[in-house]
Amino acid sequence: MLTHTFCHIPRLGAHTERELWRSGCRHWDYFLEHSHEFSTGAVSRDEAKRAIEESTEALAERNHQYFADSLSSKEAWRAWPEFGDKIFYLDIETDGGQSGDSITTVGLYDGKEFTCLVKGQDLGDFPDVISRAGMLVTFFGQGFDIPMLKKAFPLVPFDQIHLDLCFALKRVGVRGGLKKIEKQFGIARGDETDGLSGMDAIRLWRQYQRGDDSSLETLIEYNREDVVNLEVLAAITYGKLRDETLGMAGLTPADFDQPSARLF
Fold first, then answer.
1. pLDDT tens digits, residue range 121-148?
2. Are 83 and 135 in contact (CB under 8 A)?
3. Which range marks the domain in which residue 199 is found?
4. How far is it, in rounded angstroms, from Cα 141 to Cα 146?
């Protein structure tokens, strides 16, 4: 969806983007070849062309910072497929406190491998690990995970594209906590972790601190399922937002199969 996006151009809004699509301009490459044929609203054609040239170059260079700056948080979902090879699905657990020292585990899943950084073991490796990410996917990360991590690691820039599924799903009418939404879409958890909550994560950490190593194993598994399940929810969210966004222009994904296809 990213290479069909025009609303990231400064002062070019969703209405003008939809008009471009309806007129047959549905891909960056097509716009660059035929920019003189289309209206770009309040933005001059030259400005729009420069922005798309910059966008094309940034995508080719895997420059996630460019899109983190130019895409609003509301539209971050559009970059999900293109940055799939640089994604971390992220979730933290805490001991119940609000300071950076309260983080007990950070779960990270890149679509293939799960990593859990644990307080007192390897949590200090977080800055090096997160530097490999171009996009973060969280559930309420804007309100909890990222602010907590910024307290713990104030020198980490957190310059990635950030898709927060909590707010993205609300746009398509899906509300509730992560576990409720998982059940709504038939995403199952293991017998050992089914029904556990954030409060249980705090309890498990305290039990581990008292010498129960099995509690840490359960906590890590709970954290693993949190982030692995985010990938499934991200795919669902992307499909729903794509269909809704194109539907507002009277189009479907099939209309974008050919970048230069035009509607008459």
1. 999 999 999 999 999 999 999 999 999 9
2. yes
3. 84-240
4. 5
